[in-house]
Amino acid sequence: MSTTADLDLAAVAAYLSQHIDGFQGPLQAEKFAVGQSNPTFRLSGPDRSWVLRRKPPGVLLKSAHAVEREYRVQKALAGSDVPVPAMHHLCEDDSVIGSAFYVMEEIKGRHFNDPRLPDVAVPDRLAIFEEMNRVLAAIHSVDLSAVGLSDYGPDGNYYRRQIDRWTKQYRASETDQIAPMEELISWLDSNIPAEDGQRTLVHGDYRIDNMLFAADGPQCLAVLDWELSTTGHPYADLAAVIMQWQMPPGGEGRGLAGVDRSTEGLISDQGFIDLYCQRRGLPGIDRFGFYLAFAFFRMAAILQGVYKRALDGNASDPGRAKAFGAYVPLFAQHGLDAAK
C-alpha cells in the first residue's frame, strides 16, 4: 500500500460529511496496491476508517469499471449467506473527484495472494478451500427476486452474450493480432452449450485473492471486487477458479500448476468441482472444457484491456499492467488446450 496524491481528499471529506451519518474529517488516504481496474483507497479519519473505490481517470471502455453495479450488488447481498462489506454511499456525481465512486466498510481480515497458502499451516489449508467452495455455492443460490437483482443482467444465453461482449471489448483494445486468440474466439463461437435453465448471480472474478478471511480461522468475512458481476450461468465462476489454478505459481501467475496438492493440503480441481456439485445438488458437469476455455478467453480479453490502458496512460499500476500484455497469448493458448 502506498500514500497517494491522486485523490482530492478535501473534496471527498466535504462531500462525505454531508452524506454519511457521523462522518468526520480530516482524512488521510492510502492506495491499495491490489485492484488493477478500479483504484481503491483506505480513508482514515480521526476515529475510524473506510474504503473508497472509484472509476479510473481517462477515457474508458463502455460498460467497464462499473462501480455503480458493484455498489448495488453488495448492498443487495447484505444479510445473505454471501459475506460482503456494508455499503455506505454511492456518488455518481463526476464533479466531486472526476469520476463516480463509492464508500464501504473496511473489513480487516486475512488476504491471500497465493493459493498455495504458504503462511497457513498445512492441516488448516483445506478448510479455507472448503469455505471458498461454500461461498461460491451461496452466490449461485441467491434468490434474485428476493434481493432485488432479477433485472441485474439481461435474459438470453449467457455465453452468447459474454462471448460477443468480450470479443467486442477485446477488439476495442487490440494492439496486435494474436493467432491463438483468433482461433479461440472462433471455437467458442461455434460450441456454445444449449441452455440448461440455470440463471444465477455470477461474481465474474471469483478467486481467493478477491476474498478476506478471519484472522483465526477459515471463515470468509467478505467477497470483494464485484465489477464484473451479472446474472448468468454459474459454471463461468466455477471454471474461473479452476482456470486460475492452472496458472504457474508465484506473484504473476498466482496458480497451482505443478504443485503437489495432496502433500500441501490443497484441494484438487476435481475435488473442488465435486464439492460444488454436492452443495448445489448437481449430478456433475458435462463439457467442462467449454467453460474452462471460456474462462481463459475472457481473462485474455480483460488482460488486453489492462495492457491497452497502460499504453494509454490510464492504468492504476502502469508497470504491472504493461507486463500483463505478455500473458494474453498464454491465456489464449490455454483456452485452446482446454477446448481440445
Automatic annotation (TrEMBL):
Keywords: Transferase
Signal peptide segment: none
Record-linked Gene3D superfamilies: 3.90.1200.10, Phosphorylase Kinase, domain 1
GO MF annotation list: transferase activity
Transmembrane helix among keywords: no
Aminoglycoside phosphotransferase domain boundaries: 30-252
The name this protein goes by in its record: Aminoglycoside phosphotransferase
